[in-house]
Amino acid sequence: METGRQGTRSGTAPAVRWGDVLLSAVAAVSWAFIGMAGVAALGLHLLDADAAGSLGPMTAAVVALGVGGRVTPSGDVSAFGLDSAQAHTSIDVAPLGVGLVGALLLSWFFLRSLRAAGVEISAGELLARVGAVVLLFVAMLGGLAWAGHDIITIDGSKLGLNDIPGAGSLPGGIADKLPGGLGDALPDRLGDLVRAEARIGFTVQTGATLLGGAAFVTGVLLIALLASRRTPLPPALGAVHRVVRPAVSALVTVLLVAVLAGLAAAAYAMIGDDHPKRIAGAALLGAPNGVWIAVPLGLFVPWDGHATGALTKVLPHPLDDLLRVSADRPVTPGRLAELDSRVWLLAVAMALMMLFAGVLTAVRSPVVRAPWGFAGRCALRLGVVTALALPLLVWLTDISANAALSVLGFDAFGAGLDLHGRLGMALLLGAAWGAGAGALGALLACAARAAGSRVAPLARPTAPERPGEPTGPYRPSRPYRPANPDTNPYLKNPYDRRAGNGVDAAPTVASPVAPEPRPRGQGSDWPSPPPPPPPPGPTRDRRRPPPDPSGG
Fold it and tell me: Which residues have CB under 8 Å from 417's CB, separation 6+?
């Protein structure tokens, strides 16, 4: 019976080590929040957001948004008795740069703790570890919700009010057409509003943030378990190593590489720009947003949206022009190519990305069938995974942000941005792209003889154990050639010597069979092998003669 950290092989369930469970949960959640807070604070500082308010509450609010929380902004502008001046804002966008850093750190520490637990892990211990991480994450998120509220004071000139046409005088004779002398008073009121102070507050909604955080951490742990190829699972989930993990790990890999490419593009854009700090801050907070919008768009998933005001400046070209000019038609690569033909390069890049995912799936999957059957299996698995992943990307990157400032019924300042992808088309196109890329990638891997060359140890098919074979995770590899007793001294029989090698030939009598070595770890009750017979020699009676009765 083999014993170890995971209990015995006899079927008894090992006890949950609660000390290790709590320590690993504390380490994973702590490092995740440290990383998210650092990225959020650095991004806000590079964007000069801390010049308008306290950096601590804003960092807490951005972290809450990054993990699926909800922030409620509100504002009130009062300028020289204009009580009807109101600022209305709404934000529904997640800074995925913050959430991605937290997800990577949380996954790394969580998976590391599982690998240190042993070769196998029981279902009870796995659920205990997941539950501890989720509970601790939600508890720390509740503290952020308590700290994430503040009031920011912004000058009216920083809102762009001094750029309002006719801030000093109304053009086109509009003043003469307004009743009650309102035309004479309105220009002065607008000029005063430029020098007004806007008090904009924000508060993190506790209930919605805790629910969103619980969904976030559960989803992150689930994806991490499905994507990690070297992390143990309960024995009942052994098929996940071979069926699910190769495709999920391949798709996660290419999506992370795409984010790195987006960061590299942002670094290149900083060269020669007048405001490199703003580009760096925006990339830290929102690089995954832009990249993961481009992935479904390059795979021909249509998007619906519109943009007005200053928020159009945050969109890349030519998407800003398309949403500003026409919002009644969906955004597709074809419509964008009408404004800039280089958009087709995005579609080519996304097709190559999916092909790379197909090759990775084939390389990491065990080969047990003919090439065509292997290609069909890879196509099915990558198609299912992509069909689920593409709608998830579309849902994560939805954008809805609006800000409006109205004075006496006149829209003095307004900005809006709405961008939503179509989930149904993302599901269908994801299945089609994944199946095609999986089949083609598998055939390319088979042609290059690379299929199955990077299979994880846990995904390798194992033969059933036979009596006498050692049990455990490590098995001797299959020899490259048959064993040769002439070149391997450990295979030679010491009683079967041949002449001609400097050793006397064995006698003609039959050589006895070499005794079997005593197995290691056996007790003393194992029968000892019989000793070998003496070598033949001259015939001589070696028996002791009988004693002399006379005593002589």
Answer: 305, 306, 307, 308, 311, 312, 314, 315, 399, 400, 401, 402
Could you count the other beta carbons within 10 Å of the beta carbon of residue 466? 6
- Quote the radius of gyration of the chain (alpha carbons, Å): 36
Indicate the burial class of 85 (C-beta count within 10 angstroms; 0-12, 13-18, 19 or more). buried
Query: In one letter, which amino acid is 212?
Result: G
Q: Which residue type, as a one-letter code, is found at position 123?
A: A
Query: Of 165, 155, 152, which Cα lies nearest the Cα of 412?
Result: 165
- Helix, strand, coil percentages, rounded to 5, for the chain: 55, 10, 35
C-alpha closest to that of 298 among 390, 418, 363: 390
Mean pLDDT of the chain, nearest integer: 76
Q: Which of 19-23, 391-395, 513-517 is modeled with the greatest confidence? A: 391-395
| Whether pLDDT at 408 is above 70 | no
- In 3-state terms, what secondary structure has residue 503? coil
Cα–Cα distance measured from residue 379 to residue 322, given in angstroms and rounded to the nearest whole number? 36
Residue 70 pLDDT: 83
- Assign 517 a pLDDT band (cuts: 50, 70, 90): low
pLDDT digits (tens, 9 = 90+) for 248-262: 999 999 999 999 999
> What confidence tens digit (pLDDT) does each residue in 213-230 have?
999 999 999 999 999 999
Alpha helices in 85-205 (DSSP H): 96-115, 123-147, 174-177, 182-194
